[in-house]
Structures are given as structure tokens and as C-alpha cells.
């Protein structure tokens, strides 16, 4: 409040710098950070987290350190790491055998139609970003990408220079499962598209929808 009793304006820049906004409840901040980091595709920088949550950078940094200490003290199956200038959840190294058993146990389960379609897009357009795959399919593919990674059918292939987005490609295991030696042996993509349609047209229609 100012001297006249009117609500004082908050400088968004000051919030990000940690100068004016009062600290939110620690538990609420920790919960918000957990939720955001759980769905993050890449390590998240403190400034980006602070800006997105409308909190001071200093408060976010402290909350992240406390959250990491909490997971370490409880020896949870996942841990919060600071890597590449950002923060991200990872499975704990000493649980690698449990993760491996779970992944291998599902290797022979049939892929869903959504997974097969996503795998096809990656196979024919690789290396390709998650957003580009979503553009072609017209739906969110985050969960399907995680499944294909877990099955060992795709892998990360660097980042896109313009956006920094992670790129994906198929693996040697993918070729083995199809019984082919290299990608040149894949059947022509046109055989699987609606008549007279190309994958470039599908991408273009998604990037530039009709008004």
C-alpha cells in the first residue's frame, strides 16, 4: 500500500532480482518447483524458473538447494541435479539395476498406435525435435517420446542450433528390431500417407494453420 491506501505496483524486474516481492511459503515454492521440473525436457535455469513462477531468483535458488538436500537425505529414487547451468530430476545411479529390469521387462510389449506413429515420424525425419514431431502428428508427444527412449528405440542426437531443442534419432536397436541394416532400407514414406500428401505439407499446415 502507498500513503493513500492504494495497492503499490510491483516491479516485475525487481521480483526476478529478488529485491521487493515477499517470500512465498517455502512448501508452496518447493511444490511448484517440483511440478515444473517434473515435466521439464531440459535443465531449467534459476532465472527462468523465477520468472515463470513470479518469485525472486534468490528464493528459488535457496528452495532448489533445500529440495536437493531433502531428496538426498531421504535417499529417494530420483535426485535433483544442477547440470549445464540448470536444474533437472534424474534417477539415482544406485537404482540403475531396478530401472534396467523394468525397462527390459517391457521390451516385448506391443507399442501403441501413437507410439508407432511417433516412431515413424522420427525414423523418416531424423534428427528431429519433439516440437516438430508434435507438429506432424498434431498432438503432444512427450509421454510417447519417453516410452520410445525407455524402449531404446530412439536416442538424443544433440540440439537444434536455432532453438536449443533436443533432437532425436532412431538407434541401432531400432534397425535390429526391423531386421534392416540402415535407414535406406525403410519403405518409401509416401506409401503410408494420404494420397497426394507429403510430410512437408503436414508440417506446413501445422506451422501455418488456416485462419
Structure description:
With 211 residues, the chain is mostly helical. The protein has 10 helices and 5 strands. A 3-stranded antiparallel sheet has the order 3-5-4. A two-stranded antiparallel ribbon has the order 1-2. Helix 3 (46-53) crosses helix 4. The chain starts with 11 loop residues before the first helix and ends with a helix. 16% of the residues are buried.
The total count of helices amounts to 10
CATH architecture of the largest domain: Orthogonal Bundle
* Residue fraction in strands: 5-15%
Domain module count: 2
Largest sheet: 3 strands, antiparallel
Estimated helix fraction:
40-55%
Here the CATH topology of the largest domain equals: Arc Repressor Mutant, subunit A
Summarize the structure.
It contains ten helices and five strands. With 211 residues, it is mostly helical. It has a three-stranded antiparallel sheet with strand order 3-5-4. A two-stranded antiparallel ribbon has the order 1-2.
Keywords:
211 residues; mainly alpha; Arc Repressor Mutant, subunit A; 2 domains; three-stranded antiparallel beta sheet; two-stranded antiparallel sheet; 10 helices; 5 strands
Task: Produce the secondary structure layout.
Elements: H1 12-17, H2 26-39, H3 46-53, H4 57-74, E1 78-83, E2 86-91, H5 96-105, H6 113-125, E3 128-129, H7 130-137, H8 142-150, E4 154-159, E5 166-170, H9 172-178, H10 199-207
Antiparallel strand pairs: 1-2, 3-5, 4-5
Amino acid at each position: 500500500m502507498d500513503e493513500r491506501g492504494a495497492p503499490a505496483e510491483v516491479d516485475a524486474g525487481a521480483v526476478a532480482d529478488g529485491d521487493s516481492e515477499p517470500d512465498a511459503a517455502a512448501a508452496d515454492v518447493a511444490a511448484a518447483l517440483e511440478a515444473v521440473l517434473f515435466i521439464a525436457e531440459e535443465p531449467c535455469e534459476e532465472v527462468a524458473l523465477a520468472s515463470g513462477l513470479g518469485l525472486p531468483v534468490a528464493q528459488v535458488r535457496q528452495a532448489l538447494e533445500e529440495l536437493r538436500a531433502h531428496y538426498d537425505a531421504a535417499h529417494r529414487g530420483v535426485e535433483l541435479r544442477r547440470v549445464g547451468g540448470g536444474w533437472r530430476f534424474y534417477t539415482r545411479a544406485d537404482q540403475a539395476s531396478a530401472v534396467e529390469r523394468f525397462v527390459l521387462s517391457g521390451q516385448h510389449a506391443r507399442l501403441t498406435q501413437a507410439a508407432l506413429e511417433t516412431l515413424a515420424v522420427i525414423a523418416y525425419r531424423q534428427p528431429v525435435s519433439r516440437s516438430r514431431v508434435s507438429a506432424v502428428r498434431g498432438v503432444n508427444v512427450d509421454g510417447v517420446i519417453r516410452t520410445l527412449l525407455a524402449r531404446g528405440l530412439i536416442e538424443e542426437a544433440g540440439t537444434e542450433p536455432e532453438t536449443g531443442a533436443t533432437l532425436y534419432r532412431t538407434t541401432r536397436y531400432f534397425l535390429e528390431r526391423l531386421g534392416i541394416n540402415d535407414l535406406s532400407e525403410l519403405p518409401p514414406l509416401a506409401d503410408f500417407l494420404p494420397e497426394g500428401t507429403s510430410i512437408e505439407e503436414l508440417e506446413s499446415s501445422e506451422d501455418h494453420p488456416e485462419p
